[in-house]
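Sequence design from tokenized structure. All designs in this work follow the same two-part layout: the structure record, then the generated sequence. An example of the structure record is given first.
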């Protein structure tokens, strides 16, 4: 599995390695140096989501360097 890129701003895991910007926040600050993986399907009821200030369902990295 190819390393996926993660947005440094909102920690979103990008779907495609071809993407140059984050589809969620539009940032082009991406990194392949990240760890942990969480799927948030119901951000409004998720403690992790509120801690990470996530408002949209999706896949997110827990740690981004
Ligand atoms: Zn983002």
């Amino acid at each position: 599995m190819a390393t996926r890129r993660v947005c440094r701003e909102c920690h979103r895991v990008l779907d495609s390695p071809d993407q140059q910007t984050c589809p969620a926040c539009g940032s082009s600050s991406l990194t392949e140096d990240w760890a942990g993986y969480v799927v948030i399907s119901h951000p409004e009821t998720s403690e992790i989501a509120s801690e990470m200030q996530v408002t949209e369902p999706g896949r997110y990295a827990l740690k981004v360097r």
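Strands lie at 6-7, 30-31, 34-35, 38-40, 58-60, 63-64. We note this feature because it recurs in several other targets discussed in the main text.
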